[in-house]
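chain below, 119 aa
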Amino acid sequence: MSQDSSAVPGQVTLAQAVAALAEVPAGGRPWAELISRGTLRVGLYAPRGTDPQQPHDQDEVYVVMSGRGTFRNGPESHPFQPGDVLFVPAGVRHAFEEFSDDLYVWVVFYGPPGGEAAG
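prediction:
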């Protein structure tokens, strides 16, 4: 459900995002991109069992919609729960660990490769 910059939706509901994620082929990456404009990409991520992701070349923000567990962000690890917002700078190794089977997180990627300048 990726959108070009001329057709960016003004709203995507969680139900629409879950439906888009259900269309991902079995064994595919548990990610559905729903909004894309310039450097901005927004999607829903829902790993099951383990989190296979690698560091990304953009800064990213997660908004936890459901699920609980531990989030590893570089050398640090912290518990998370619904409503939490998690930030990961570009290039930093991170992963959801020991998480529940109902984990759904909005993911927002933005900025240039290598991330925004620290400010």
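Residues 5-50+57-110 form a domain with the Jelly Rolls fold (CATH 2.60.120.10). The beta strands are 31-37, 40-45, 59-66, 69-73, 76-80, 85-88, 94-97, 104-110.
thats it, cya
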